[in-house]
């Protein structure tokens, strides 16, 4: 078997979010003569040769293509940060150019905003960025984030629509100094990025951290994605998130977001779901609707507490996905028949967020930013900046 660079083994394990003890256990290493940790350390130091069966197990447990292990050196981390997604074969490469372009744009915006804040003496390092670790309990991490946000879950649920609930949560997040963008394409519907490819992105900088929520997703899912990415900010982990929850970091962030939006005790209301599939769907739908939550979040929590098995979870998730796609198609058809539409600047402001608009407005008024840079930050032409910052 060709020689494997031991650095590749370390990189593959660490990017899978696995500690050495956890990885050794999942790889079924260790025995009477040597414990699993010591065995894996020998492989990672290159003092012990890999067998092909073990390499195949590593590829499976670390969720990396087998060919990755034959690279001469670990791949350099791209500017998108870490990739927390698990995609079927080929999907990552199909989406990479568009996703990289979107993330590069966010990096540029963040740097311009940070520079602008420094020029106006508004730059304040945020001490919560990177303040938690995956070793903390989900309950403690959720409590910490909730307290810092001053989130009132009852207020969140009292809003008339799921979009208003998201706006409430977004305003609390932006009040902390985190900028929240709604972006799902590169400017046209032809460049839209599916939620299968990208659901959210967190840029975990101490000054002017950014969160991107893919607005191609159902609006009822936006709040969950925002909290998921906020958990990445608290972890200090810049990167792209997808729709899966296989990786350890993604599970941790999913669990934090779902615990904040749906405390464990409330799930007892669904303890007696029954066996009839239609009754189960109706009960979950009603439960989620009352709380301004997606049905996918509820079934995820039911899976985690083992009230449903993975087969039921997959079936229900697919059912809810089909329902949403059918509803979305109807809305598009209805919108196409309707005359006119919302004001361009109001829509644009909603996508970039009030916080980004307001900080840019102040910098323009004080002469710290040119219309060209302001347009780059806000994602509009320089000639449209004034109209955008004046929209309400």
Topology (SSEs and partners):
Blueprint: H1 6-15, H2 20-26, H3 36-45, H4 52-61, E1 82-83, H5 91-119, H6 138-149, H7 153-158, H8 162-175, E2 179-182, E3 200-203, E4 210-213, H9 219-235, E5 239-241, H10 248-261, H11 277-290, H12 295-304, H13 310-337, H14 344-352, H15 354-365, H16 371-378, H17 385-390
Q: In angstroms, what separates the terminal alpha carbons?
A: 65 Å
The number of E-state strands comes to 5
Low-confidence stretches: 88-94
Approximate strand percentage: under 5%
Instruction: Give me the CATH fold name of the domain at 6-68.
Output: 434 Repressor (Amino-terminal Domain)
In which range does the helix fraction lie?
Answer: 55-70%
- The H-and-E topology, N to C, reads as HHHHEHHHHEEEHEHHHHHHHH
- Multimeric organization: single chain
Identify the CATH architecture of the domain at 6-68.
Orthogonal Bundle
Report the total helices. Answer: 17
Q: What structural class do helix, strand and pairing data support? A: mainly alpha
Strands side by side in the biggest sheet: 1-5-3-4-2
**The CATH class of the domain at 6-68:** Mainly Alpha
Per the principal axes of the C-alpha atoms, what is the gross shape? globular
CATH superfamily of the domain at 6-68: lambda repressor-like DNA-binding domains
Structure keywords:
392 residues, 434 Repressor (Amino-terminal Domain), five-stranded mixed beta sheet, 17 helices, globular
């Amino acid at each position: 078997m060709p020689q494997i660079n031991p650095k590749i083994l370390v990189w593959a394990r660490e990017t899978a979010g696995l500690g050495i003890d956890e990885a050794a256990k999942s790889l079924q290493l260790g025995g009477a003569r040597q414990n699993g940790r010591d065995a894996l350390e020998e492989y990672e130091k290159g003092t012990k040769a890999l067998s092909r069966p073990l390499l195949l197990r590593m590829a499976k447990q670390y969720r990396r293509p087998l060919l990755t292990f034959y690279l001469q050196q670990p791949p350099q981390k791209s500017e998108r940060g870490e990739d927390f997604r698990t995609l079927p074969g080929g999907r990552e490469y199909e989406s990479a150019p568009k996703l990289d372009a979107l993330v590069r744009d966010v990096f540029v915006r963040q740097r311009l905003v940070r520079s602008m804040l420094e020029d106006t003496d508004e730059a304040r390092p945020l001490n919560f960025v990177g303040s938690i670790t995956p070793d903390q309990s989900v309950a403690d991490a959720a409590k910490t984030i909730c307290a810092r946000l001053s989130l009132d879950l009852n207020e969140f649920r009292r809003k008339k629509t799921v979009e208003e609930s998201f706006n409430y949560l977004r305003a609390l997040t932006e009040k902390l100094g985190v900028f929240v963008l709604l972006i799902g394409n590169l400017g046209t519907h032809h460049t839209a990025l599916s939620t299968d490819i990208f659901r959210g992105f967190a840029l975990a900088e101490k000054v002017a951290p950014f969160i991107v929520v893919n607005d191609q997703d159902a609006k009822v899912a936006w709040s969950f994605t925002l909290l998921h990415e906020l958990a990445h900010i608290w972890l200090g982990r810049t990167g792209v998130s997808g729709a899966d929850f296989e990786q350890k970091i993604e599970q941790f962030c999913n669990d934090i977001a779902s615990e904040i939006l749906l405390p464990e005790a409330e799930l007892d209301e669904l303890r007696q779901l029954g066996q009839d599939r239609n009754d189960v769907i109706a009960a979950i739908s009603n439960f989620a609707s009352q709380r301004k939550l997606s049905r996918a979040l509820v079934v995820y929590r039911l899976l985690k507490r083992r009230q449903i098995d993975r087969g039921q979870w997959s079936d229900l998730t697919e059912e809810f996905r089909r329902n949403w796609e059918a509803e979305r198609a109807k809305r598009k058809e209805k919108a196409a028949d309707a005359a006119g539409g919302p004001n361009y600047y109001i829509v644009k402001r909603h996508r970039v967020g009030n916080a980004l608009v307001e900080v840019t407005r102040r910098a323009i008024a004080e002469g710290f930013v040119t219309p060209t840079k302001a347009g780059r930050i806000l994602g509009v032409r320089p000639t449209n900046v004034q109209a955008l910052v004046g929209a309400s």
